[in-house]
Amino acid sequence: MLAATTAKRTFRGRREYVRVGCGRGVLPRTPPKAPFGVRVCSVVLTLVTGVAAAVGPKTAPSAAGATPLETFLDDLKTLRATFVQTVTDAHGNEIDRATGTLIVSRPGKFSWEIHPKTGGSSAGQLMVCDGTNLWFLDRDLEQVTVRPVDAALSATPAMLLSGVTDLRKSFSITPVGPRAGLEWVLVEPRDAEADFRSALFGFTHGELKRMILEDKLGQTTTVSFGKIERNVPVAAGELTFTPPAGADVIGTPRK
Q1: How many whole angstroms separate alpha carbon 136 and alpha carbon 112?
Q2: What distance in Å separates the CA atoms of residue 110 and residue 113, rounded to the nearest whole number?
């Protein structure tokens, strides 16, 4: 009942608020913190990249009982996708809109790059998890933030899914049925300190098409996927990061 109420609340908000955008915000120099849209997407990416080790043959649900999300993650090794990312504030006002590219290599590596609607390739943000460090580049500020993966994950309890815990122990996963041509799955963190309140994953014919992420203040981030390539080659260099010349670097990477 609670899951159904949460899903209805999120969908209801989508009907009431016509405009949707993605807030990039402004990063303070100290302490560095990525905008909500990037932080929450990193949580979801950690779920996607790290769950392989957590949900093995002994703990995975049967095929008959698996949700579309779990079926999608099953046997996923790499993923390459384009997307449009948007966000509304608590009043339904558009904050920003961006396009981006996602590259995943499981377990534990990903690249999530976004460019604002205006500003071109020289603007925007890039988050790279190379398996050892989590890097965040804000091109507008010419600033790089880096933290070891285990420190970054422990700082955000909802990100504990990077292969160190069972998916269903950290998240409540509930199928909520079809709506607007997609089959939806509701994911809610069990930890009260998580960055987001809920996430809705929308699928069609087994492929992920949309994510709707809601934070505790009512801000909603929507990611609509375009072309998705599954289990395609990913070069090692696509998931490594070197700070650009002249950028301020905050934090110390683990060697």
Answers
A1: 10
A2: 10
> Nearest-5° angle of CA 181, CA 189, CA 86?
50
- Was domain 2-25+33-250 assigned CATH 3.20.20.70? no
Q: Can you give the pLDDT at residue 9?
A: 56
Q: Where are the domains of the chain?
A: 2-25+33-250
- For residue range 26-45, what is the model confidence (pLDDT) as tens digits? 333 333 445 545 555 655 66
E strands, the chain, where?
78-88, 94-105, 109-116, 125-129, 133-138, 143-148, 171-179, 182-189, 196-204, 207-215, 220-230, 248-250
Mean pLDDT for all residues in the chain: 75
Give 105-162 pLDDT, tens digit per residue: 887 788 889 888 776 666 789 988 888 998 999 998 999 999 888 776 544 333 433 3
> Residue 204 forms beta bridges with which residues?
207
N- to C-terminal Cα distance for the chain? 47
Start-end of H helices in the chain? 2-16, 36-54, 68-73, 149-155, 167-170
